[in-house]
C-alpha cells in the first residue's frame, strides 16, 4: 500500500533515535552472517541455462563483500536467489542458504514459508535495487513510501512514530527532512539513490545487498554515495554485498572480493590480495581492462 499526495513527515526530527531497534554493536570480524553452500540456479528454458553453478561462500558480520564480473555472469541472479526474489523460469536446483541471526538462531532461508520470507526480507536482509527511479513509485511522495515500510513491518508504531522515523532516516542519508513531501522526479539521481538506501536501512537489517547502486551516477556523486555507505556500515554494523562490474570501485570499498564468471566464483580473496596478487587469469584480465591514471606515455595510432 502506498499513499498518494504530499502528506506525511510533519513531525520534527527527535533528539533521540526513533528506529525500532537500538544501535548495533560493532561486529567482530570472522563472525559469519550468511553461509551459501553449493548453490545453483537454472533458467528453465529450451535449452536450460545454468546461471549460477555450485557457488559456495561465507559472508562475515560487518563485512563489505564485493561481487564483480562482466554483465551476464550471474551476479544479480545469485543475489536474488539468496533472497528468493527470482521468478520463473528461474529455479533453484541445489544448495543451501543459512542466515546466522544476531539472536544466535540459524535461519534456513530456503525452508521459510512465504509469509515468513516476507517478514525476513527488509527486516534481516534488505536490497538496494539498480535504478532508483524505477524502484520508487513516481506518483507517491518520498515520505509516504518510506512510511509504508514501517506501516507494513512495524504495525505497532503509531503514525507520529512512523513519521519521526522517516524524518530521521532522511537526515541520516543527508537528503533532509524537507524532502519528505517531494516526488521522485523532483530529486536528483543521487538523492533518489540515497532515498533507496534510507528505505533499505529503515528496519536496521543485518545485511544490505546493493545491486550496482552507483552505475547511473556521475563520479562525484558516486564518491559521495560510497563514502556514505562506508560510514553507515561502521555506524550501524550491517554487512554489505556490493554488486558491480566496476572492479576498481570494489578495490576501494570492499574487505573481500568475489570474482564471478559464467555463473561460478573463480576467485575469492581480500581486496588487497586481488589487487596485488590475483591468482586467476580472468581476474588479471579484468584488472588490465581498466585504464591507469599513471605510467609511461604511449602513442595512439589512428
What would you say about this model in short?
By secondary structure, this protein is of the alpha/beta class. It is built from 10 helices and 10 strands.
The fraction of residues in strands falls at: 15-25%
Query: Which word captures the global form?
Result: globular
Poorly predicted regions are 12-28
Which structural class do you get from the secondary structure elements?
alpha/beta
Strand order of the largest sheet: 6-7-8-3-9-10
Termini separation comes to 58 Å
The largest sheet is: 6 strands, mixed
Secondary-structure element pattern, one letter each:
EEEHEEHEHHHHEHEHEEHH
The number of helices is 10
Estimate the mean pLDDT confidence: 87
Helix content percent band: 25-40%
Q: Count the beta strands.
A: 10
Rg over C-alpha atoms, rounded to the nearest angstrom: 20 Å
Write up this protein.
This protein is α/β, with parallel strands linked by helices. The protein has a domain at 137-204. The protein contains ten helices and ten strands. It has helices at residues 75-82, 114-123, 132-135, 142-153, 159-172, 189-201, 219-236, 247-253, 271-276, 281-288, and strands spanning 32-43, 49-60, 64-68, 90-100, 106-108, 125-128, 207-211, 239-244, 256-261, 264-270. The protein has a six-stranded mixed β-sheet with strand order 6-7-8-3-9-10, sandwiched between helices. A four-stranded antiparallel β-sheet has the order 2-1-4-5, with helices on one face. Helix 4 packs across helix 5 (159-172) and helix 6 runs parallel beside helix 7 (219-236). It is globular and about 55 Å long. The termini are far apart. Residues 12-28 have low confidence and may be disordered.
